[in-house]
Amino acid sequence: MLRRTRPAILLQDVYMPELDLDALMRQIRADRDIARTPVILFTASVEADDVVERVGADGMLRKPFDLEALEQAIHGVLAHPHAL
Predict the structure, then answer these.
(1) pLDDT tens, position by position, 37-76
(2) Which one in 43, 53, 61, 72 has a CA-CA gap of 20 to 30 Å to 25?
């Protein structure tokens, strides 16, 4: 779906049933057509501190978050995209 729609940014929950975040991020970063797509993760877990660096995401928000925090995160990532 990412290859087909080419979103400006991907917002992804860290823990999703039937989704391996590590595998998803490896596939994204390995595909030159979508590798530069910024990815912001979100989670309620306090045990996910290392996940952004581990999977190569561009940022993370802790749930619950408000709309202003989401907007700031999106603008920040789009203004300073992850250097791949």
Answers:
(1) 999 999 998 777 789 999 999 999 999 999 999 999 999 9
(2) 72
pTM of the model: 0.88
Residue 45 pLDDT: 86
- 77, 58 Cβ separation under 8 angstroms: yes
The kind and range of the H/E element at 4 are helix 2-5
- Where residue 18 falls (left for φ over 0; alpha for ψ -120 to 50; beta otherwise) is left
Contact 63, 73 (CB under 8 A): no
Q: Give all domains of the chain, ordered by start, each with its CATH number.
A: 2-79 (3.40.50.2300)
